[in-house]
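Teaching assistant here, posting this on the class forum so everyone can see the example we discussed in section. The complex has two components, and the goal was to see what a joint structure prediction looks like when all of them are supplied at once.
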Amino acid sequence: MSLLKPFSRLTGLNTANILLVENEEQFQQKLADTVVLQEKTVNVNVLARSLPLPMENEESRPRIDLVVFIIHLTSELSFQSAETSLKYLDPGYFQGKVCFLVTSARNVSVPPERLVSVRTLAASLHCPLLCAEDQTTEGVTTAAHRLLAILKVAAGLVPMATSLYLSTLTRCTVPSDIDQQNFE
Amino acid sequence: MDDSTKRILQRLIRRIPSQMLQTMLGKWAHLSREDLHSLDFTQPKWVLTEQLLALCEENGLRVKHITELEMIYIIENPNQGMWHGFQLLDAEEDAPSIELTQFKKQFKANLTELISNVSIKIKKHTDEAIWIRVAWGDNFTKPNHLKPTYVVHHLQTPYVFVTGLTSKYKPLLNQALVLATRYGSMKDAHLSGRNLTAIRDLLMRQYQQVFPTKNPKPLQEKNPVPRNPNIEKEHAENTENRLQMACEAFGDGTLPQLQKAVYKLETKFRDNSNKTLTDREEPFRGVVEFASTNLLESLRHCVSSGMASTPVTPLLSSITQKGRNYFVITDKGV
């Protein structure tokens, strides 16, 4: 199985690379454009539909610092595709270099169980879960801003902060965990 | 003017939207310019109707003039009502050389022979289409102008488009058309929709088609679209392939606007989890209907975004390849 490995390549100077994985391939383009616009000197965005990534690009692909799984809560297929893609990630990524981004969380027609299952997945992997609004430009800009903040830490561009340290602060928790902490 | 004529005129004015009324009356040309100027088109429609009725009475206009106005309106706005496509088969030797006057004469003669009380109007439109309006009557009743049938035929093509035809008069119209166009028979093309231009484009393949090529990328003369060097697409090839297959199956650019595709299933039930239904001998009858404001556009998007698997299943691509939207599927094939 071709796993995506976090440290198989040398890092570049002043660069950070983010991989956006989305089954529908719609939000990722907008997000990528905004991220590149916001931080002109730093990054390269790689857009994919699912993992594993094609073998042909193995040589030219830069080192990926942050993998973001974009899940649209309106579609079950989105979630399942993200779940199956997780298998192709080297475990080294799960120390703060993976992030889940969820859209349409406020949508009334979305079954609440789906958000719960995404949260349990993110909590079990110790990854942060971000909610984004993909229909307006402000929503896209906000999401890009937050991703950039995590990306800079994951690429080592922020002094005194590592992605593992950040992930202990930002990791997703499922409500039952919090309740248990409160009452013990 | 008698009551029925008045009623026909009133219905027609009510049907034509206010914005178009002035242009339609101008094209009609049965009212003099002074009369037209005397009408104030900013008034409410019922006031206009009264004034028009009075003007028509003055000018002594009769049913045949009013039906002319209706025909002008329908020709300008053909995308209402349900249009059905038909195909003529077994052309005889002189079918390709039929010309307008001959067709008109033959059609009128044939139809009046078959049913005496009909009112027929034939008009040739600028885009080489012949429009026929038929109002049907019986031996004892006058033609009913409130429910006319419209027929569109392009000469030298084997296609006919009909709207407003009841099954009672279908065989008569068929026979008259077949004889007038010098073909052997006419069959249902199984294509129907609200938009006449759409079904005409689909049947006569007048939309932008994409043909399979071995080297789909264009020559490298032109500068490619400036892509952001910072953004890399991993699955670009896959996306391009999917888009290519979607366009090959459904076409490029603006697609004809179909509203429905109906698949009538007469196949045996096949599902291993449901034993009672699977063991039956007779076919399981079901109807699958796809509906959308622009069906072909939605299907193309389904394929290009990966929702429908590629290669495109022939069940969907035969909508455009065969030009029909009603299919009966049996176990032996479509």
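For the discussion questions: The CA atoms of residues 79 and 197 of chain B lie 7 Å apart. The radius of gyration of chain B is 26 Å. Think about how each of these relates to the inputs above.
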